Every structure is written in C-alpha cells, then in structure tokens.
Amino acid sequence: MKKRIAALAVAVALLASACTTGSPSASGGNAEPGSLPTLEQKDTYTIGFSAQQSDHPWTIALNESIKSEAEKRGHKVVTTDAQGSTAKQVSDVESLIAQRVDVIVISPREEKPLAEATIKARDAGIPVFIVDRKVDASVAEPGKDYVAYIGSDFVAEGRAAGEWLVKRLDGTGKIIELTGTTGSSAADDRHKGFMEALEGSSIEIVASQDGDFVRDNGRQLMETLIQQYPDVDGVFAHNDEMMLGAITAMTAASKKPGTDIATVSVDGQKEALQAIVDGTLGATAECNPRFGPAVLDAIEAYGKGEKVTPEQVNTDAFYDASNAAAELPNAF
Predict the structure, then answer these.
(1) Which residue ranges does UniProt annotate as crossing the membrane (predicted)?
(2) What angle do CA 305, 51, 212 make, to 5 degrees?
C-alpha cells in the first residue's frame, strides 16, 4: 500500500509539472490566455515593429521615429513592412510572435484583423503596444489585452477640418470627401468628427469615396468627380497625400484649388504646408507621426513595473495661412 501511495504521489507531481510547462514567454511574461503579459526589466529589448507600409511620407516618418528612438536607447528593432496589405500585416505579427521578440509594437492598417493578431501575441505572453491607428475595442482593449494605445485624436482632426470648412464656406455649399482606408480607425473617426462639425450647416456632401490614403488615388478620384460635380464648393481629404493628388486634378480641370474650391485635409506634412503657403490648400489638421519617444518611454516604464496609461493621445496643431510658413521648417 505504501508503495502504491508513493507511486501515485510521483505521478501527480509529474502531471503538475507537465501542466505548468507551457510555451516559453517573452522576457518572463505571463503566457496565460486572457491576461496582460508582463515584461522583464532589461537594459536591451528586442522590439518587434509591425509597420503597415513604408512608401508614404507619413508612415516613413512614423517608422523612422520609432526605429531611431529605440536604437538611440540601445534596443534592437525587428521591423516588418506589410506593404499596405492587411493580410500580410497579420502574417507579420505572427512571424514576430514566432521569433519570440520581447515586445511588439503595431501600427495597424485595419481595426479588427489586427485586434485578433494582438490577442495572439497576448496569449503567447508578449506585451503589445498599438500606435497611430486603433484596433477593434470589442476584440482587444488597451490595459487589458494590450498595454497601451498611443496616437492622435482622429475625431478631433476631422472636427477641426470640418469647422474650418464650414467657416470658409459660410455654412453652405456642396463638397466632396476623399476618405481613407475603409475599416481603419483613422478614416472612420475623421469622418465622424467631420460630420459633427457639419451639423447645423447647409453643407451637402455630394460624393464620399475611398482613396486609401494614396496620392494617386486622390488624383484619379478627383479627375472623375470634378467632371460629375463641376460646381463643387469644397473638398475634404482624410490626409494630405490624397489632397495633393486632388489639387493636381483640379488644376488640370482649370479649377483653382484654394480659390474656386475650398480645400482642407489632415496630417501637416511639409508639402501640404508648402501648398498652404502657395494658396492651393486652405488648411490641414496636424497628425504628428513622431511617436518614437512616447512609445519607448511606455515600453521602458512597463518593463520597470510602472503603471502605463492605457490610452495616450497626442496634442496636435492646426495649420492655415496664419502659421504654415513659420512651421514649414518643422514639418515632416
């Protein structure tokens, strides 16, 4: 009997050991599903950075800000480029998980698919930080499923652009809206803020089409829309790149953007500020891409066990004829 009891005790101990031996977690993080992973404090982290693309002035500035700030502090950065593909970005995040990086930073192209990828990283015990665009909060929440969101207030950007346009058009007129990538928080929220600003005015949106935040798409869309709506009074583009393309199309159609047609966009890139100085763009709401210092501060604080604010929002500026020339040297 004593031998049987001893054998049973050994079996139970082995079973318990097997149950607590799971896949290795990053930097000693918690790999249990449903919990926020921890991050071991180290002098050097290997940071996986999932970039949505690298061929756009705004994302180039964002990517460089994060990489340069991390390297300046002595950390290693493993960067992936989704090249504008949501499916590839999901695969990129899965690759970073497989590489067992210490922490993952995601600049998500779309909300839901990247929220699901965030959950995979969480369950693998790797802390995630979301930067720029948000992920679907019904799938993954900051402070619960990932450490923090660090970005701009897209609703406020859209509202600021809308308020400027309402004032510029004296509350009446027909406008065209060039929207960003369908399914992205930047496009959804900028449209929401813009519509809030238009409430109570007599401004009518005669066309709203997705230009995917791409300059040439903005140009092509405007080439068609300016023919359909030759008497349009204003154009709102969800980013400067689409607006710069639209300005080219309006000019080719013998319209004077900024004079015949009121123009307003979002981002505040150098070429857009120059367009304000030149008079072809009326205004742009800033969306500053230089997130590097804030992201690295948050990662290092989390590694030290300090409390990290789940949602961190940048304070952005607004550029028009009153300040564009002075701010031009500081633009990205």
Answers:
(1) none
(2) 130
- The values of phi and psi at residue 44, to 5°, are -130, 125
- Residue ranges of E strands in the chain: 46-51, 76-81, 103-106, 128-131, 148-151, 172-179, 202-210, 234-237, 262-267, 283-286, 311-313, 318-319
Domains located in the chain, CATH noted: 38-151+289-315 (3.40.50.2300), 154-287 (3.40.50.2300)
Do residues 96 and 48 touch, judged by C-beta distance below 8 A?
Answer: yes
pLDDT per position as a tens digit, 268-294: 999 999 999 999 999 999 999 999 999
* DSSP annotation of 132: S
Q: Which residue has the tokens 């590839």?
A: 88
93, exposed or middle or buried, with CB in 10 Å at 0-12, 13-18, 19+?
A: buried
pTM score, whole prediction: 0.86
